[in-house]
């Protein structure tokens, strides 16, 4: 369908009114939060207005004789993505652990950076995607639909009358947590940003592809998960990494120092009484 015809659809009127007639690049740079919101709204409207897109993409990965299969690749890369997320989630907390163990030594990194990463993970993939969207969307997964050998009825984006009762398709928790790794770009040294972005974005594409190939999610589930997580990053970036950075550093450092000293004192007391 020609782009001009698609954009004349009444669903797109709110989006088109928000977008400037010119200077789109300057608009994106100066208003990243508004840009992320517009992109999220546009994706929701596209897939709500044209739900056949989701089914058409799902059919690309479906074989009537074997179901949703891409031999060997999806489980492997899915596990790689999960393993890296767990590893990085633990690694960024090590400076906090080190401060608890040695409370009077300097922090390995400034606390606002791991705080930013943990907040993005908790609010984006955690609260919004897995906590809210997956709980209340009621959207069955592709592999559960009649069209693909299952028993459920397809539900488009925004239709809350689906037959899924728990762990539903919309949106993709794994795509959201994979997108979370891109937040590393905001906290690494400038010289590392491009390599980190390319590596995390490649992993994001692979993990998201596995969810499509396994019939676990629709394309809209994945794109919305990306944009929700990205929106959280953009909203938190200025206050956590810049505006309130000194207060966060002082507060976290002081709290860890106090707790670390108390834990060390408790440990010395326990060991002294045993001896």
Automatic annotation (TrEMBL):
Transmembrane stretches, start-end: 37-62, 82-102, 114-133, 169-187, 194-212, 218-240
InterPro entries in UniProt: PAP2/HPO, PAP2/HPO_sf
CDD domains attached to this UniProt entry: PAP2_like_6 (cd03396)
Domain Phosphatidic acid phosphatase type 2/haloperoxidase: 117-237
Protein name, entry field: Membrane-associated enzyme, PAP2 (Acid phosphatase) superfamily
Superkingdom classification of source: Bacteria
KW Membrane (keyword) present: yes
Gene3D superfamilies associated with the record: Phosphatidic acid phosphatase type 2/haloperoxidase (1.20.144.10)
Keyword line: Membrane, Transmembrane, Transmembrane helix
């Amino acid at each position: 369908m020609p782009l001009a015809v698609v954009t004349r659809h009444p669903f797109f009127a709110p989006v088109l009114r928000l977008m400037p007639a010119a200077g789109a690049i300057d608009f994106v740079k100066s208003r990243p939060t508004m840009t992320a919101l517009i992109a999220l709204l546009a994706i929701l409207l596209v897939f709500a207005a044209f739900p056949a897109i989701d089914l058409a993409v799902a059919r690309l990965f479906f074989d009537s004789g074997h179901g949703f299969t891409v031999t060997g690749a999806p489980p492997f890369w899915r596990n790689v993505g999960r393993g890296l997320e767990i590893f990085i989630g633990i690694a960024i907390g090590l400076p906090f652990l080190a401060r608890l163990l040695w409370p009077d030594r300097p922090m390995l990194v400034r606390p606002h950076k791991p705080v930013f990463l943990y907040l993005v993970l908790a609010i984006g993939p955690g609260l919004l995607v897995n906590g809210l969207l997956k709980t209340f969307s009621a959207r069955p997964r592709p592999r559960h639909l009649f069209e693909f050998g299952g028993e459920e009825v397809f539900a488009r984006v925004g239709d809350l009358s689906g037959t899924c009762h728990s762990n539903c398709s919309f949106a993709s928790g794994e795509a959201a947590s994979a997108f979370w790794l891109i937040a590393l770009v905001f906290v690494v040294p400038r010289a590392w940003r491009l390599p980190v972005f390319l590596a995390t974005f490649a992993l994001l594409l692979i993990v998201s592809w596995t969810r499509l190939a396994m019939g676990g999610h629709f394309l809209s589930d994945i794109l919305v998960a990306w944009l929700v997580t990205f929106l959280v990053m953009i909203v938190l970036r200025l206050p956590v990494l810049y505006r309130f950075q000194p207060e966060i550093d002082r507060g976290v450092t002081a709290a860890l120092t106090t707790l670390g000293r108390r834990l060390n004192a408790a440990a010395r007391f326990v060991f002294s009484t045993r001896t």
